[in-house]
Amino acid sequence: MRYYRNCDELPIYNFYKVMETKNYCFLCLDYDEYNELELKEDVEELWSEIYEEYVNISGDSSTAMYYELIQEVLYLETRYKVALDLLKNLASESMSEEMKMAYIEELREWKYKIDISKPLGEELDRMIVQLKGSENKIRLKNNELEQFKDEGSKNEKVSLIKQTVKLEQALGRNNIDTKKIPVSKWIAMMNEVKEINESRRKSNGK
Fold this sequence. Notes:
About 2% of the residues have low confidence. The chain has two domains: 95 residues, no CATH class; 89 residues. It is mostly helical. The longest helix has 31 residues. Helix 3 runs antiparallel to helix 4, helix 3 runs antiparallel to helix 5 and helix 7 crosses helix 8. The protein contains eight helices and no strands. The N and C termini lie far apart (56 Å). Helix content is 68%, strand content 0%.
């Protein structure tokens, strides 16, 4: 399986998709978005290298921070809902011991760890306290997300579609294909538009 190795190869569409979904299949040359692929173990390291190159070229980390925050909130909310359902079922007296162990193991996967050597009732009470802590964390992360959304300039940057439209208008091109333009060229095009706009502002100011 072949992978995009750097910002000169990776299409900007794929770059944004990785940020949105954390699906590293978008780093594969032949990924069709329909079938999941078996990825190499160090693919996350490859993404880190590509992202670091992106930050160095663009000087902008706010876009990735925004998407990472969205993913964190989605994970925390999913984790909370799953754990809440599992704990409600686990509290049922009619559940078999085998089923209880299966639920306890599933909770462990979501980082809600029940000590089976202690009374279940006490552990469930402790899990409720942990759930309340999760609620607070979700609330804090959602507040961070709202702050990002309130900052109009940053919110502009996070939409690939908006950027594409602006590029097409500024450069007089009707169909910019984000699935073919590599990240490094995309950044160069964005910088070109900034230079064009700056030149226009100077001309209008004279």
